[in-house]
Structure formats: structure tokens, C-alpha cells
Amino acid sequence: QVQLVESGGGLVQPGGSLRLSCASSGIIFSIYHMGWYRQAPGKEREWVAAITTDGFANYADSVKGRFTISRDNAKNTVYLQMNDLKPEDTAVYYCHALDATRGRIYWGQGTQVTVDS
């Protein structure tokens, strides 16, 4: 009964901000590396950001300097703060969990982010 549930998506103007959340259950959250992916219509899913169990973050070049990934182990939740949003950021954003020790991977159902004036 593993669940990753994203929230916080919506419609925002270019230059605006959104904060996505991914609440997990059914896993020992603290031993999972977490990440965010996105998929725009007609395009392949692409990696956006990741954060390790130790809190080390990495970002795709397209979002570096604008997005920040963080995690709160006490709440079993990972976040994606998105600033200076651009129309090309429009996509469904998916939460991702990886247990590298056992090779287990889980995905959320996605949340829509639309950047449009």
C-alpha cells in the first residue's frame, strides 16, 4: 500500500511561483532518495530534481537556479519550490521515490502545472 500523493499544482502566470508537495505513506521515507519528474504533452518524461537521504540536491539544467527541492522526514514529504515559472515549465509533475539498497521505485499520480498569461 505504497502511496505518493502530489499536490500544489495549478495555473500561474509567467514569472510566478508554486510549491508542490508529495506526501508518502507505506514506505520508510528516510531511507528513500526522492525526486521530481515532469511530462509535457507530446514529450517524454524528464527528470527535474532529486534529493538524497542525506539531503544532497541535484537539478536539471533547465530549472537550476529557479527550483528548489527539499524534504521533511518528520512529515514523510518532499517539496518542489518553483520560482520564476516559464511557459515551458507547463507539464504534469510526478513524485518519485527510490530505495537504492533494494532497487525499489515508486511513482505518484502527478499534478498539473500550467504557466500561462
Report on the architecture of this protein.
- With 117 residues, the chain is mainly beta.
- 0% of the residues lie in helices and 53% in strands.
- It is built from no helices and eleven strands.
- The strands form two sheets. Strands 2, 4, 5, 6, 9, 10 and 11 form a seven-stranded mixed β-sheet that branches. A four-stranded antiparallel β-sheet has the order 1-3-8-7, with no helix packed on it.
- The radius of gyration is 14 Å and the shape is globular.
- The mean pLDDT is 97.
Give a brief description:
With 117 residues, this protein is mostly beta strands. The chain has strands spanning 3-7, 10-12, 18-25, 33-39, 46-51, 57-59, 67-72, 77-82, 91-99, 104-107, 111-115.
Low-confidence stretches: none
The end-to-end distance, rounded to whole angstroms, is: 39 Å
Mean pLDDT equals: 97
Measured by DSSP, the beta-strand proportion falls in: over 45%
Q: Count helical runs.
A: 0
* Biggest β-sheet strands, sense, barrel: 7 strands, mixed
**Over the alpha carbons, how many angstroms does the gyration radius reach?**
14 Å
Decide which structural class fits the backbone: mainly beta
Percent of residues in helices: under 10%
Question: How many runs of DSSP E, i.e. beta strands?
Answer: 11
* Overall 3D form: globular
Element order, helices and strands?
A: EEEEEEEEEEE
